[in-house]
Amino acid sequence: MKIYTKAKEMTFEKSKENTSFLIKIFKKMPVDDLSVIDFVAINVTTGEAMLVIADHLEWDEQNEHLLILQNKINAYLEGIENGSLYEEYPDAKNRNIVIDIKAKFEPNEKGSIFLERTKKDLNAAGYQLDFTVLKF
Fold first, then answer.
1. Looking at residue 95, what DSSP letter applies?
2. What's the burial of 131, exposed, middle or buried (CB within 10 Å: 0-12/13-18/19+)?
3. Are the beta carbons of 25 and 54 closer than 8 angstroms?
4. Three-state DSSP class for 30?
5. Mean pLDDT split into 10-residue runs, the chain, 136 residues
6. How many domains does the chain have?
7. For 115-127, what is each residue's pLDDT tens digit?
């Protein structure tokens, strides 16, 4: 699995600078590209390895977005489990892993249920899931 954007360290607190940086990633990185981790960095505050998914899709009633996001999360997990994350980004070794979804749109009801269940499943597996809607 390749990494689209790497940063040695980054603060993940809300700031105009961080939001504008992540918006640039939105414009270049489709969420349905399963061969790539959109962005990875070490959170300087927590020391966690942050694997960011840049999610620009609207939530739909047919759950196509939900399926795309599920596939992307599974691809990230596969990259963690098979070690390709650590080959591409060795700084992530021996750190807590956070899959951090930066979304353009608020989830619908089914999306919210999916995110809550996924968060519980990932926590049980030793990972963390964060979801934030960026204001454009």
1. S
2. buried
3. yes
4. coil
5. 51 52 58 84 88 91 94 95 92 95 93 97 97 84
6. 1
7. 999 999 999 999 9
C-alpha distances (whole Å) from 118 to each of 26, 90, 94, 102, 128 are: 22, 26, 23, 15, 10
The Cα-based distances of 45 to 9, 11, 48, 86 in angstroms read 10, 7, 8, 21
Integer angstrom CA distances of residue 33 from 47, 96, 99, 112: 27, 24, 16, 22
Residue 88 belongs to what domain range? 2-133
**Contacts with 30 (C-beta within 8 Å, 6 or more apart), sequence order:** 56
For residue 18, with 0-12 CB atoms within 10 Å meaning exposed, 13-18 middle and 19 or more buried, which class applies? Answer: middle
Helix, strand or coil for residue 115?
helix
Residue 9 is predicted with a pLDDT of 47
